Amino acid sequence: MYTLKSLDSEIILRWSKLLEYDFFRIYTQHLIWYSPAHVKNRADINSESELPKFRKSIYTKEIIDFIINLIEKGEKTKAEIIAEYKIPKTTLFKWLAKYKS
């Protein structure tokens, strides 16, 4: 399995359960960081789907710590974080109030 180019998700799930490690977290973090900003158009506004909607706001503790660390060290400003990582302003300020050391 180590030398294969890809693995079936069922196999990854089995390994995750066996090793008690969430291998899918790697992929969800990648989707969060590199997904384009969603632009609502008329089709989105007018269509009421009964399907569940995917929530992009799934931030892990590691991501939150990384962002707060950038601000505390002065590597990036709050405005740069909001613009570069597309994190909502209110979310960032809630993180700072809750997790800032």
Automatic annotation (TrEMBL):
<protein>
    <recommendedName>
        <fullName>Transposase</fullName>
    </recommendedName>
</protein>
<dbReference type="InterPro" id="IPR009057">
    <property type="entry name" value="Homeodomain-like_sf"/>
</dbReference>
